[in-house]
Amino acid sequence: MEYLTRDGLFDIVYLVVSPKNPLKEGIDADSGRARFDAAVDAVARHPGLKVSVDDIELGMEAPQYTIRTLDALEEREPENSFTLVIGADNLALIRRWRSYRRILTEYGAVVYPREGYDMEALRDDLLAECRRAHRKLYRITLLDAPRVDISSTEIREGLASGRDMSEWLM
Questions:
Q1: CB 126 within 8 A of CB 104
Q2: Distance CA 87, CA 143 (A)
Q3: Which side of the chain, N or C, has fewer Cβ within a 10 Å radius?
Q4: pLDDT one-digit tens code per residue, 54-81
Q5: Burial letters for 133-144: b for 16+ Cβ neighbours within 10 Å, e otherwise?
Q6: Where are the domains positioned within the chain?
Q7: 4: pLDDT confidence band, cut at 50, 70 and 90?
Q8: CATH code reported for the domain at 13-168
Q9: What is the DSSP letter of 40?
Q10: Are 84 and 105 in contact (CB under 8 A)?
């Protein structure tokens, strides 16, 4: 099985903060700016990190679909090529995403390991789908990286309840 290693993946990673994921309940769109500011603060604590926090979705009309964001980034920066970086948990749900076939063929996805998800099986199932439909093959690359087994939602909930979450913060 071929995996992508962390060395030399991208020139820069855009961390896009979304005001409201259309598939998630419990995230208030009004918290988008606060989450954006927190992400900027976190990245600023690590000079030299090749991550740029981007607020492109904060100015987009709802709902903020990933395909619309990728298209807007490509329009804003036609000299760059974009690839979606997601966790294996999101790959498991990607068929629920708007225009997921376009995302996987035109932009591709690099998939980060998550506890409880078999990245290879998920990728193989999606690739079998496009072969059966005689479609252009999806670009799905698996990332060889250590797992971080906590979600941003769990971190926010921990902080809100007063728990020490410092080991999970950048």
A1: yes
A2: 9
A3: N
A4: 999 988 888 889 999 999 999 999 999 9
A5: eeeeebbbebbe
A6: 13-168
A7: very low
A8: 3.40.50.620
A9: H
A10: no
Residue 102, number of CB atoms within 10 A of its CB: 14
Backbone φ and ψ for 141, nearest 5 degrees, come out as: -115, 130
User: In the structure encoding, which two tokens stand for residue 67, read together?
Assistant: 């395909």
Strands in 84-87's sheet, in edge-to-edge order, are 84-87, 109-112, 140-142
d(CA 11, CA 51): 9
pLDDT at 152: 72
Q: Tokens 């989450």 identify what position? A: 35
Please state, in angstroms and rounded to a whole number, the distance separating the CA atoms of residues 63 and 101: 19
| Entry pTM | 0.83
% of the chain surpassing 70 pLDDT: 87
| Side chain identity at residue 170, one-letter code | M
